[in-house]
Amino acid sequence: xxxxxxxxxxxxxxxxxxxxxxxxxxxxxxxxxxxxxxxxxxxxxxxxxxxxxxxxxxxxxxxxxxxxxxxxxxxxxxxxxxxxxxxxxxxxxxxxxxxxxxxxxxxxxxxxxxxxxxxxxxxxxxxxxxxxxxxxxxxxxxxxxxxxxxxxxxxxxxxxxxxxxxxxxxxxxxxxxxxxxxxxxxxxxxxxxxxxxxxxxxxxxxxxxxxxxxxxxxxxxxxxxxxxxxxxxxxxxxxxxxxxxxxxxxxxxxxxxxxxxxxxxxxxxxxxxxxxxxxxxxxxxxxxxxxxxxxxxxxxxxxxxxxxxxxxxxxxxxxxxxxxxxxxxxxxxxxxxxxxxxxxxxxxxxxxxxxxxxxxxxxxxxxxxxxxxxxxxxxxxxxxxxxxxxxxxxxxxxxxxxxxxxxxxxxxxxxxxxxxxxxxxxxxxxxxxxxxxxxxxxxxxxxxxxxx
Amino acid sequence: xxxxxxxxxxxxxxxxxxxxxxxxxxxxxxxxxxxxxxxxxxxxxxxxxxxxxxxxxxxxxxxxxxxxxxxxxxxxxxxxxxxxxxxxxxxxxxxxxxxxxxxxxxxxxxxxxxxxxxxxxxxxxxxxxxxxxxxxxxxxxxxxxxxxxxxxxxxxxxxxxxxxxxxxx
Lengths: 452, 169
What we know:
The structure holds 2 protein chains of 2 kinds. By secondary structure, chain A is mainly alpha-helical. Helix content of chain A is 68%, strand content 0%. Chain A has 15 helices and no strands. In chain A, α11 runs antiparallel to α13 (363-386). Chain A is globular, with a radius of gyration of 23 Å. Chain B is of the alpha+beta class. Chain B is built from 5 helices and 4 strands, in the order βαβαααβαβ. A 4-stranded antiparallel β-sheet of chain B has the order 2-3-1-4, covered by helices on one side. Chains A and B meet through α1, α5, α7 and α15 of A and α1, β2, α2, α3 and α4 of B.
């Protein structure tokens, strides 16, 4: 390895420069930032807030949902956003335990991405509900009649899994940021000083504090991995534990987990391309990071394609009329057929280009492939729901589903809502981990010792 | 009022050598650093115990029991037969308990961290901004007045960039 490069391929720079750069990303904003923020808020309010208010006021009749399809695009969005959330915390935890050096520059934003996408997904549950104010019915609380929840419903598993995941992801993100919040506290003035003094909890960076931080962080990482796997398995069981052809597949849990990591990793690539350019942090997120993420995407693409193939093949092998109908409807009937084959192109064939190192280290091609993967992954979730429910066992009950303008608008609005949260995040939170980048640069030693 | 001495170092290994010397002489030392020194500090000043694991373990056990209590206990409080399905069902009990085990494992580990690291603490404590950037600090506290010169001299001997005496409350 070249002497002046770190393990992750970053140039070795003085510690002070890291503090300066990260604080700069938080305190200096150009006009572009404010325009992007204003746009995202406007689109979130107009495309999401208002149509939702209209839907609540008028009733679920404004959606395209009707018998037999009562689950539509809202739940496709729910799975999509939960999927996006997967890579952040899960990847961060796995790479932390395996002590992978290239994790250090990207994990903070990836974890934030997790938290915000779980939040977006959770809001879709409310949007999907006809009467969102009755949400507390899914929460266990003591009541006079001692009538509790039905824990045998997969939807209840979801409530527990997602609440646990959201809480743990938030703790994981906040906890790993404490030393950086203290570093920011020491550099800023005014209201920021008060805010970060409060957030940094009085951190001083003593040997005892570092010791307990590293021990607790390791346990968090160990807890998060099985939790993240369980969350998307449970989301898959919302569907797989039913008897609907196209949904009742035993492969669904691993299929969803793999799909989630796949779309989440692609989400990280998209985000990193934008982030490094917008915040001018190219020296921290290097081509080496994209190279490694590209390999990860390639592996996940192969896994996903394999499971997707299996899912179709086992249905086909069963050769029952309802399985066949469900497959024909999804793969050969327009407009779903166009979507299905587009998904196969973006998620199975396009990522094969990542075999070439030149492609992996090209920012533009990485961006195109990652965006393509997420378009494909959104289609996958959409097709799972809207091509299975309209073709259940009895043909007289068949009815096609198409989303209404309200549903499409709320879908578009969710992307603006997510962007808004992320734009606020980069100004309020250190989006790069100051202390871990310093770890990557190395501990300054006068006499080079042997590593322990 | 007791006195304390804070020395700033550029290099971590020099600081650790000075810390070891002072610790061996019976002083109470605290190391400040902008990054975790992990193995280096354990190698020089000795390892520390990891009590968080008990918090993680018992947190997970408590969470699991709460999950079981919630699913089976509430089913027992209001027996509601549903189409011949079992009143006490194992699968959902295990699933919900799995989630609550992890949730409580995380929450109680966090409490463990706060107890041992003594955070949050918003009072006044000895601290210098530089240790959050690029300086390694060595704090020797609770020193008797006649020993201050000796500690300062030791820190300078080891090549501290700056040595200052601070008062402890």
